Amino acid sequence: MGEWQPDTIRDLRELCGARAVLTDPTSLTSYENDALGFHRYKPDAVVIPADSDQLKQIIKICRGRDFPYILRGAGTSLSGGPVAAQGGLVIHVSRLRKILAINEDDMYCVVEPGVVLDTLNAALKPRGLLYPPDPSSSYTCTVGGNVAENAGGVRCFKYGPTANYVLGMEVLLTDGRVVQLGGPAGGLGPAGGCDWKTLMVGSEGMLGVFTKLWLRTIPLPERISTSLATFPKMTDAANAIVDLVHHPSVPVAIELMDNRIVQLLEASPMAVGLDPTCWAVVVEMDGPTALVDAQAPAIEALLRKHGATDITSATEDKARQRLWAARKNSGGLLGRISADNMVQDAVIPRSKFGAVLEKLYADADEMDVPVFSVFHAGDGNLHPNFSFDGRNPDELRKVHLLGKRLMEYVVDNGGVLSGEHGIGTDKREYVPLFFGPRELAMQNALAECLNPDHQLNPEKVYPHRSFVGCCAPVR
């Protein structure tokens, strides 16, 4: 069997060096999937550019050739996004990780797309600055991927998602042109007009390639207070969350862990001493020291009013991290009980938590599929986790059915299909539950203006969105 696209491979090796172009099956296996795990598509080749100049030349090489290409950062996404669903070339931007500038006076930074989120905040902290978006994978996820998915995270309730912090971007279009949308001052762009950068945020790699990003920062909070409260019933926890949302102090984070995942946590080496039958709520406040200290008694009284049986609070970093350990260790524990885990993502009105979760748990129990929920309750962002073995076709079928039912319940209750993980390959079949034919046609037409033939990141987000080059493989 001959080498895939020999002319392309030759051109890429001449540009980037032989070691930066991967074609052997073992290396390609590492790029088959993202953190969702079971949507696996092996690419035909991978190239790792050394800098933005090489990235721009790679896009020129791809233009007009008969294969699709996909941009990839850390691969921590949870929707089957940066994968080669039709084969082709994966462009891995992990080496584009320069922090190009930090402007303390105007409170922004300029970064390349491969910068890891925690690395950015470590560089900002000595300057008294913070970049607020905080997805759970912040220790490894990249800023470019966060912008592509409009990532949220635990601080999303107060500070909002990534879109709130993108002042501008340099974008490489599929025709090879480089455009700047917005800039250090944000706004509508150098000459005014439509705010096109907002179109790119959350576009899931369909419309262009980020080469540079201007990001807004905020002052580092003077004080942070974290509280972990436990409740005997879901209704008690849900009622407390509704009151927290309406509280004038505006918490940074309001996280909920169901009693199933608490039980799993307390049966593990990572146990933190919670009642295994409880529902746990993590609340975080930040701001000036005097203000946070003054708000703490009111937050504790609110939690106790709704039946909290135990409340632990801390302001020192190490003690706070111990409280967060219950929330942040929970996801990794799911690998102890099954070969695969499907973590879903949807947003519903907070008043519908009980109704949706009750139906979902009943369905999962009936199908004998373990389900655990830990999610951003403050902004209504559900994250149920289904444990299963992807090697078992019957278990895989049940998980797909549960995912479909969840999306139907979400839409029926006034929700939307994704809060932060995106649609990717995983949820694109559910998009017609939310959008009608005219809306889908409009969105596809807009995507085709910037990405003719869907050569860039095909088979994502919208049904029937595939690369149509003459040599596109049938998968």
List keywords for this structure.
475 residues; Uridine Diphospho-n-acetylenolpyruvylglucosamine Reductase, domain 3; Vanillyl-alcohol Oxidase, Chain A, domain 3; 3 domains; five-stranded antiparallel sheet
Descriptive report:
- Helix content is 32%, strand content 19%.
- The protein has 3 domains: 6-92, 2-Layer Sandwich (Uridine Diphospho-n-acetylenolpyruvylglucosamine Reductase, domain 2); 99-219, Uridine Diphospho-n-acetylenolpyruvylglucosamine Reductase, domain 3; 223-412, FAD-linked oxidases, C-terminal domain (Vanillyl-alcohol Oxidase, Chain A, domain 3, 3-Layer(aba) Sandwich).
- The chain has 475 residues and is an alpha+beta fold.
- It has 14 helices and 20 strands.
Give a brief description:
The protein has 475 residues and is α+β, with helices and mostly antiparallel strands. The protein is built from 14 helices and 20 strands.
